[in-house]
Amino acid sequence: MATMADVARRAGVSVSTVSYALSGTRPISLTTRRRIEQAMLDLEYTPNAFARGLKSKRSHIISLLLPARPGSPQPSSLEYILGAADHAQRCGYHLMLWTADVEAVDDLTQFAGQGLVDGALLMEVRPEDPRIQVLVDAGVPFTMIGRNADPAGLDFVDADAEQTAEAAVEHLLGLGHRRLGFVGGPSVRNPVQNAILQAVKRADAGMNVDLVQVEAECSTEGGRNAFAWLLHSSPKITAIIVANEQAVSGLIRASADFGRRIPDDLSMMCLDMPAHVAELITPPMTTAGPSAAEIGRAAVDMLLRRLDGDVAPARQLLFRGELNLRGSCAPVRDADHQTASDR
Amino acid sequence: MATMADVARRAGVSVSTVSYALSGTRPISLTTRRRIEQAMLDLEYTPNAFARGLKSKRSHIISLLLPARPGSPQPSSLEYILGAADHAQRCGYHLMLWTADVEAVDDLTQFAGQGLVDGALLMEVRPEDPRIQVLVDAGVPFTMIGRNADPAGLDFVDADAEQTAEAAVEHLLGLGHRRLGFVGGPSVRNPVQNAILQAVKRADAGMNVDLVQVEAECSTEGGRNAFAWLLHSSPKITAIIVANEQAVSGLIRASADFGRRIPDDLSMMCLDMPAHVAELITPPMTTAGPSAAEIGRAAVDMLLRRLDGDVAPARQLLFRGELNLRGSCAPVRDADHQTASDR
DNA sequence: CCGGACCGTCGATTCGATTCGACTATTTCA
DNA sequence: TGAAATAGTCGAATCGAATCGACGGTCCGG
Hints:
Chain A is an alpha/beta fold. Chain A has helices at 4-11, 15-23, 30-43, 49-56, 75-90, 105-113, 130-138, 161-174, 191-203, 220-233, 248-257, 275-278, 292-307, 334-338; strands spanning 61-65, 94-98, 119-122, 142-145, 156-159, 179-184, 210-215, 239-242, 267-271, 286-289, 316-319, 322-324. At the A-B interface, helix 4, helix 5, strand 2, helix 6 and helix 11 of A face helix 4, helix 5, strand 2, helix 6 and helix 11 of B.
């Protein structure tokens, strides 16, 4: 309510002096500073965000671009959001949510053009993501959480898909599994899918590993279908790696329907699933992947550095995915090696 | 980038004319309007949010106050957030996240004083919630999602705890259960807990229903402890109603440890758990409660109405909780009536 | 045919903070 | 001792849009 002019009047100085006292841009004598501070306290003065933003071209607001149809939420999104929001706040920034679809280019253009936000965090980045060009054109600095097909020259934070895939594959091979399945999401050219393939190839030193990959829709039904397909293409399958949170329920349900007990008959592991969700599953789901909250925080850090004038070449940060062993993976049973096709 | 002055120059009119053309506040001739629109297109003009906010005292930003320690997120929060964000956006508003703790009164005071937001949505409202006074003092209109101890005169949207409790209790009694348990959260004076108690009392027409209530911490461990306590105080218990998402994993785990199969030996039902989470559990969890996304939307609606100058007395909206029957509740077995104490 | 009601437009002021140039008083150094 | 640097403060311009009062022109009714 109170304005700078009010404070100035009460402290018996000019408006500019108050401003300098607040920002520290120019030296102010101790006595004057004290009077001003007292006046600010008395009047409960809070600088007006708009006036400040108008003149200084800095809003201290960053936005989180999260294309999300409400109704089919990914639980892990929440971790990113909270991780980012919390950290941004600690750094003196506000976090604004932008949920419009990836394709809503015009809306985004307008949003970016308003000058409301200092920068943006991009989530659910697609290989060819139209939002990137919009932000570049509008001159809004941004950091991606995930990455597009050609991220050269762009800042991003992402899970280390190669390393995570390797850890996951290694674990299952170590348990004796040789016939693996992979369930991905519907996104084109999922980097994780590729990473798994590579990891299997690399590890496959005469082990004769079999890998079947399938893309599932993000729903229980999608998971069911994926499971049926997997079993159809590789009846002797003993372990499944899932990179699609929303399909897990269907996979579990279907595996029960097909009479495959987890982990006795079938091991299952999910990538990038939050711990509290994994704990809910019976048996508790073994997972692999970095902490979403931490990635969110790192993305904020990276963005804020740019806002502070960092002109270094594009920074790209990968997060190691830890393996969280719970109860959904078990050593392969010997019987499976011989006769696993007759169920 | 382009300003109103640029547009005015290009269209050969004055700044004020452009402004009137944009807002429609005063009549503008068709030919002039067209020239202006063309100029705006040519220059890709977007009104500056700060200048607009400074002059008009309206930011078209609302904030969502969601005290959340990242690390222990409630999956249902995400539904509220996305429901609210999406709807706000549709209504031409931006949604800003504020994650500071309920007790961080000073931070909130400053935030509210900045004039950045037109209004606020309050989540995780406590019986005695200091944020309420802060917002009232700052003159920031707000709507609560949930309610405090004395919500008279305040706008809120909430689940209809009485009705939901009644539906839940009725369902279990209908299945023959007479020894019930209730697991609540750590919040003081949880209205749901009370509602359950009342519902049991009301329904108890000589049925001789037994109800044991316990508060659990929001964690797997909390759920485990609650289960042990429940079993200790009421060994013959056959059904549990849970109003604490984060304790469910512990309850499930403990019930397995104690050899109680769900739903054969023990029925379990969770209030206000999102469908996609309930589907993950084995067996799929029966739930009761309204749609979080819908509540989020309704809260936005209510708030925006106030921002549009609605001066009606406080609006208070309760949402019916639908029962979603999945697989975690079953008819009580007759044996339980006679000898359920000897496990 | 003249006065008032409207229409369409413009100039000037305002919102509240930032910042540049200028000015005074004091200090520093050659 | 005089020139230059420094500390401390002020006034005024500025950011970009909203809005009020005013003004010339058109139209209508009496």
